[in-house]
Amino acid sequence: MKKIVFILLSILVIQSGCKKFSEFQVDPNKSTIATPDLLLNSIIQNAFQSTSISAALACRQMVYTDASNVNQYYGWDRAGFGTYGSLRQVLKMEEAAVAQGKPEYLPLAKFFRAWYFLQLTQTFGDVPYSNALKGDDGLGDPAYDKQEDIYLGILDDLKAANNMIGAGTADVQGDILYNGKMQQWKRAINALSLRVLMSLSLKEGKSKIDVKQRFAEIVNNPTTYPLLTGNEDNVVLKFYDLQGNRYPYFNNNDLQTADYMEESFVNLLKDLKDVRLFSFADKAPKFAALPADDFNAYGGAKGSAPVNENNARTVAGEISKINPRFYNNPTNEPSIALGYPEQQFILAEGVLKGWISGSASDFYEKGIRASMTFYHIDQPTIDKYVEQASVKLSAANGLQQVITQKYIASFFNSGWQPFYEQRRTGFPAFDVAGSGMLNDHKIPKRWMYPESELQLNKDHVLEAISRQYPEGDNINGVMWLIRP
Predict the structure, then answer these.
(1) Domain spanning 79-227+456-484: which CATH class is it, in words?
(2) What is the distance between the alpha carbons of residues 398 and 352, in angstroms, rounded to a whole number?
(3) How many other CB atoms are found less than 10 A from the CB of residue 459?
(4) Strand pairing partners for 236?
């Protein structure tokens, strides 16, 4: 009898041993199928974190005083293609939406496809686009599309996304931005279209995209193309005092000890008597006895000056650090990826360029007011600020004022957008005069292609370089977007 029992047990053990190890790792209470709501949650968190010290250093809003930083001194070289990994997540969301009969996610897939490809082409110029996500189909070495064609595809995707959202479109799940409300997504889609179109301002009348006409079509048809209505529609990432969800620079050591305010940025705010300075910066130690609302209590270090010079000034207590809330508060403020203030400044520029009718001054003032409201500045103070002669929009310097206010509103948010705006317009003038500068005292125009492309997709990347940059792949190459 014992023999029989032993044999039966042995058979059971052998049978169980034939099962794959992975079968023991499956939690029967959890779904193994990717769902679009879970993917959307992750995509939003990745896409809309737009707070970057690297961008702040390159945009002359901050300085680093412990060593020579390539972003501050314009000595960078290559960037990576990691954004394609984010695009694959978008593709998975789209495929899951189709497979599970949830078409309400499809316009969002088009939005994020546009969002990420815009980042890629603004960084490099021509990039793989048409066949970029077809690795599973054997296209592991995709050709590079021309930047003009990529921009046309981005705008067509955004227009299609807008048209896919109607009054009866179902709410999406997993939406940590708008809680599933598709009409707010529709506004964000069209606000992004305006950003894309304004980035093409140097190509007005010089491309197949019809920049001016597309811009006017959106603005002049608010029923079909609604826009952001206020800060409540901002495309932002909110932070929570939870592991993995805190403000990205909470408890950051460099921000507490080595990152300081940049001189030209501080002086700009002081000259305009802009009280946002008090929200952005801390008083310089040398002037600690002065009230927090005294502009004389704040100072900055020169972005182009050598490290030793800036370090000596920080030791002397002359330079302001960033406001402590940026590293002490785990939730601090939402990271603005695309906001109502920026949209209003874009509309103001559109009027100045003659693309649309309306009052440039009104759009401009609404942008300023919305930005200052975001920082909880009271209305009497805002009213006083916009009434200053130095702030009121002038006929002579209108474009510079609009871009300057957009630049101020972008402090520690909006990612690299202020850098791209400066590249497009020349405003504000970034200081490159100091002896700390790299890159022959020039502001770079782009980033070089990843080393991996030269190894894995050599023929196509070399073709793209030759087509765009006769002098070779370098950070000063002028891409189609900004070529006069």
Answers:
(1) mainly alpha
(2) 7
(3) 9
(4) 336
CA dihedral sign, ordered 313, 314, 316, 320: positive
Count helices and strands in the chain by DSSP H and E runs: 21, 4
| Cβ-based neighbour number of residue 109 at 10 Å | 25
Question: Alpha-carbon distance 155 to 376, whole Å?
Answer: 35
Nearest of 234, 248, 251 to residue 56 by alpha carbon = 248
Domain covering 46-69+232-430 in this structure, CATH number: 1.25.40.390
Distance of CA 315 to the CA centre of its chain: 33
Cα 483 off chain centre by? 22
Q: Are 443 and 431 spatial neighbours (Cβ–Cβ below 8 Å)?
A: no
pTM for this predicted structure: 0.93
Measured distance CA(299)–CA(290) in Å, rounded: 13
DSSP code string of 16-52: HHTS-GGGGG--TTS--S--HHHHHHHHHHHHS----
Nearest 5°: CA angle at 199, between 193 and 200?
95
User: Which residue in this structure is represented by tokens 């700390």?
Assistant: 436
What pLDDT is stored for residue 206 in this prediction?
83
**Identity at 473, one-letter amino acid code:** D
Q: What is the pLDDT of residue 139?
A: 64
Determine the Cα angle at 93 with ends 91 and 96, to 5°.
110
Quote the pLDDT of residue 134. 84
Question: What are the structural domain ranges in the chain?
Answer: 46-69+232-430, 79-227+456-484
Rg value, the chain, Cα:
25
Q: How many CA atoms lie within 13 A of 155 on its CB side?
A: 24
The amino acid at residue 66 is: D
Going from the first residue of the chain to its last (484 residues), give the mean pLDDT of each consecutive group of 10, the final group possibly shorter.
Answer: 39 40 40 84 98 98 97 98 97 98 98 98 98 77 97 98 97 98 98 98 92 98 98 98 97 97 98 98 98 98 98 97 98 98 99 98 98 98 98 97 98 98 98 98 98 96 98 98 94
Is 119:151 a contact under the CB 8 Å cutoff? no
Q: CA 49 to CA 40: how far, in whole Å?
A: 14
Cross-strand pairs, 335:
237
